[in-house]
Write a structure and sequence with these properties.
Length: about 200
């Protein structure tokens, strides 16, 4: 294997794995296999959304954001391989000089990715207060009709996440699908709700 072949292989591996990771997460694609890489932190490759969640879980679990993570290593590999291949094919530098420039380019790319990831963590690593998880007072809509004295389902949004819960009418009356409601209490996995217009009259 020549130096150019080695650099090309590094570039292809780094670029293809980065593309799979990004588009798999951004487009919410479910691959027929899971990618497990032996990187500190045990993150799954999965685009920005998965990356942000993994980083937040890691920091809250008492770990730190390591330089040696999947994203920075793939960025290093792709840039290292790409720069090294170009230099070996289109310059008259000796192999050692090409290796040095390729390594510097890879470190530069890895540093950029690391700084970007650190900014994401800093922007999203806010400590959640207890009231952020309270359901009482949350506004939502009925997604599955609630029969008189029966149980249906409601949809609502909490902390920018759409959720659903089993629900019953507070007064035992029926509620049709699409009715705007307010959760008044939550007990034993069931949300008790009132119509929004009734709630605002109180």
């Amino acid at each position: 294997m020549t130096w150019s072949d080695f650099y090309l292989l590094c570039f292809l591996v780094g670029f293809l794995l980065s593309a799979i990771a990004f588009f798999g997460g951004a487009l919410n694609l479910h691959l027929p296999f899971r990618m497990h890489l032996p990187i500190h932190g045990g993150q799954h490759v999965g685009g920005l959304h998965g990356l942000r969640g993994g980083l937040k879980r890691g920091l809250k679990g008492g770990t730190h954001l390591s330089w040696f993570n999947v994203s920075t290593m793939l960025a290093f590999l792709a840039w290292f391989g790409g720069i090294g291949y170009i230099l070996t094919k289109h310059s008259h530098l000796v192999a050692l000089a090409s290796l040095g420039f390729a390594a510097l380019g890879g470190l530069f790319a890895g540093t950029l990715v690391f700084r970007f990831m650190a900014r994401i963590v800093q922007a999203t690593d806010a400590h959640m207060l207890d009231w952020d998880y309270r359901l009482e007072g949350t506004v939502g809509t009925v997604s599955m009709p609630i029969r008189e004295g029966g149980t249906g389902e409601v949809l609502f949004e909490q902390n920018s996440v759409r959720k659903s819960l089993a629900a019953r009418s507070e007064d035992g009356g029926p509620l049709t699908k699409g009715t705007e409601i307010v959760i008044t209490r939550y007990e034993d996995g069931v949300a008790y709700v009132k119509r929004w217009d009734e709630f605002t009259k109180l």
